[in-house]
Amino acid sequence: MDTQPLAAMPEEKLTLVERRHEYGDVYTYFFEPEHPIPYEAGQYGHVRLFDMPPDVKAVREISFASASHEKYIWLGIDSRSHSPYQQKLLLLKPGDQIGLFKVKRHMQWPPEKSDVVMIAGGVGITPIRSFLRDRAHKQLPMTVSVVHVGSGSFLYGDEISTLATHYQATGRNELPGTLASIAKEHPRAAYYVSGSPGFVETVIEALRQSGISHIESDVFKGLAEEAVS
Ligand SMILES: Cc1cc2nc3c(=O)[nH]c(=O)nc-3n(C[C@H](O)[C@H](O)[C@H](O)COP(=O)(O)OP(=O)(O)OC[C@H]3O[C@@H](n4cnc5c(N)ncnc54)[C@H](O)[C@@H]3O)c2cc1C
């Protein structure tokens, strides 16, 4: 469900403070907003790059990796496509601005259940960091088990291992076994799944086959499947 006031907000300008290289083609961008943006954990916004050629799409949907109490807005972005959008993003320098509009959500938060399982593929961990930061800040009473699927590098892995009740970083080949055992251990939990379309589809299908019905998901349309191989 959309969050109407934010979905209708005028375009806000964010100023780049710092870009941090995480691994490979993955970077975290730290932005300072001109005005406070009352976004909620797990939401995403439409991010516009300025001065793009007219024939190039200048907007992408990007999840907040930060929670709203944090000083900067964090965007964790996989630039592996090297599309014109990603090339332009990589050229941004501290002090440069981007636009942010239409803030929405796909995953409801907080959950009504106190046992929560979050499963992310690659950069799909961004809304999960946001949830976990919010949970710590508000001291929300729930246990959270995080399964992060990647190919050797795990975005925010050290931080998430301290924020989550249980944290497991694993490879795609181990995914079927991992999902079967987590579903057995947490049959009535609220599940959150985020990542590329293929990843989310695979995980949801496996969870449903294991009898899990309460699943929230965020499909990162456009994100290359290789991001979680
Ligand atoms: C809700 C949401 C949250 C996201 N959060 C993140 C995030 O936190 N970090 C991150 O790195 N990426 C995120 N993405 C993915 C991001 O929006 C881009 O789709 C992705 O980076 C690909 O764009 P590109 O410029 O790299 O590649 P491109 O080469 O421009 O795109 C790759 C292919 O995907 C198609 N495509 C791009 N966007 C869409 C779309 N919205 N719907 C359908 N097809 C599309 C293009 O037409 C092209 O064929 C998110 C996507 C969604 C929908």
Task: Sum up the structure in keywords.
single chain; 229 residues; alpha/beta; Elongation Factor Tu (Ef-tu), domain 3; Rossmann fold; six-stranded antiparallel beta sheet; globular; binds flavin-adenine dinucleotide
Question: What report would you give on this structure?
Answer:
The chain has helices at 4-7, 84-91, 126-138, 157-163, 175-185, 197-209; strands at residues 12-23, 26-33, 44-48, 59-63, 73-78, 97-104, 115-121, 143-149, 166-170, 190-195, 215-219. It has two domains: 4-104, Translation factors (Elongation Factor Tu (Ef-tu), domain 3), CATH 2.40.30; 115-228, 3-Layer(aba) Sandwich (Rossmann fold). It contains six helices and eleven strands. β1 (12-23) and β2 (26-33) form a beta hairpin. By secondary structure, the protein is α/β, with parallel strands linked by helices. The model has no long low-confidence stretch (mean pLDDT 94). The protein binds flavin-adenine dinucleotide. Flavin-adenine dinucleotide binds next to β4, β5 and α2.
The CATH architecture of the largest domain would be 3-Layer(aba) Sandwich
- The counted number of beta strands is 11
From the alpha carbons, calculate the radius of gyration and give it in angstroms. Answer: 17 Å
From the N-terminal CA to the C-terminal CA, the straight-line distance is: 30 Å
Which series of helices and strands comes N to C? Answer: HEEEEEHEEHEHEHEHE
Query: Given the helix and strand composition, which structural class is it?
Result: alpha/beta
CATH homology superfamily of the largest domain: Nucleotide-binding domain of ferredoxin-NADP reductase (FNR) module
**Main sheet makeup:** 6 strands, antiparallel
Q: Count of helices?
A: 6
Examine the coordinates and then state which fold CATH places here, giving the name of the CATH topology of the largest domain.
Rossmann fold
The amount of beta strand, in percent, is 25-35%
Pick out the low-confidence regions: none
State the shape: globular
